[in-house]
Amino acid sequence: MRDFKYYDDLYVENTYSRFDLSLVRGKGSYVYDENGKEYIDFNSGIAVNTFGVSDDGWKFAVEKQINLIQHSSNLYYTEPCALLAKTLCERTGAKKVFFSNSGAEANECAIKTARLWGEINKGKDNYGIVVFKNGFHGRTVTTLAATAQESFHRHFYPFTEGFYYADAGDIAGIKKLVKENGCAAVMLEFIQGEGGVVPMDKGFVKDLKSLCEEENILFIADEVQTGNGRTGTLYAFSQFGIVPDIMTTAKGLAGGLPLGATLFFGKAAGTLKAGLHGSTFGGNPVCCAAALSVIDRIDDALLKEVREKSEYIVKELSGAKGVVSVSGMGLMLGVETTCDAGKVINTCVGKGVLPIKAKNKIRLLPALNIPWDALEKGVSAIKEAIEENL
Ligand SMILES: *Cc1c(COP(=O)(O)O)cnc(C)c1O
């Protein structure tokens, strides 16, 4: 029998450029490859493993539900789905939730809802959605259309129509797009994650929200990556001083199981009716039980720790040799260096630390409960790796 990586290269459609690495087990922020080499995990499976690997509380919740029933379909009620919806609404002020299985699907649901809302409230031709250059909203044909980055588009035309690309900060330009095109919504990430950990200006976000009120359109916040404690609050919108009409999330929601959620606030709630949207796996009881355990643990004490760990990383890395800037919020940070990010990351992997890339930056997304000693060891290894690549 050959090394299984050989079979992966041979039989799995080659859409990912993988590291020559396989993580087979772990505990918390420490993960191990098949040879037993230890790594400090600085990306949490791209912001998914909220409490790291093989966490006891998370496992307890998952195991408990697996021993009851793993799936029953959305034809029937399930307790984890109901209780998770209740928790999410109570913690955010949302009125309703739709569950799916991924970030792209959560955004598809937001887009369908905005189109329907536009038709009901503004008339049939008001389906346009303004999105922002350098954003990322998913890989389906429609969420790619919403992703205003040409590099994702080539080869896949034609796209779903009705998306208009704006520059963040350009309120006048956005207003013009809304007025000229019959729009139902704007959609944005508070921190463009895949775009290179680029935060939106808080003043701009407030102005954009005001514009949405004036023009009577929906404000859709894509919190697929920024959500679930990642930025130091349960969801990032509270730090921007606005409440969205629709918010989507996924990645860290179920701590390592696939679950997407689309939350409807105020005027957007109750738009979708029976038969207008659905998902076979959406709201799966095991995923919802996992998410319930994750959200319940994201309390003030944990969030305070996320912010303190963030401050520590920013303090250690800003001004370090070879570092140009550190962007982002909470434990979603991007480090721009004078050297090649990819090379620094490979050096880090050699040193047993696993950050990832976002555009030209080194992206740090450790578990929200990363222990202080692992954090300190990891950050000093990243510093060394940057110096070695200058
Ligand atoms: C990852 C991501 C998505 C896509 O999520 P998938 O689960 O891969 O479909 C959408 N929006 C943002 C902001 C993301 O970071």
Describe this structure in words.
Helix content is 38%, strand content 19%. The chain is α/β, with parallel strands linked by helices and 390 residues long. It has a 7-stranded mixed β-sheet, with helices on both faces. It has a 4-stranded mixed β-sheet with strand order 1-2-3-15. The chain is globular, with a radius of gyration of 21 Å. The chain binds pyridoxal-5'-phosphate. Pyridoxal-5'-phosphate binds next to helix 5.
* Element string (H = helix, E = strand): HEEEHHHEHEHHEHEEEHEEEHHEEHEEEH
Instruction: List the ions, cofactors and other small molecules found in this model.
Output: pyridoxal-5'-phosphate
Helix tally equals: 13
Helix content: 25-40%
**Radius of gyration from the CA trace?**
21 Å
Could you give the distance between the termini? 41 Å
The total tally of domains equals 2
Average pLDDT confidence is 97
Q: Which regions contain 5 or more consecutive residues with pLDDT less than 50?
A: none
Full CATH superfamily name of the largest domain: Type I PLP-dependent aspartate aminotransferase-like (Major domain)
The CATH architecture of the largest domain can be named as 3-Layer(aba) Sandwich
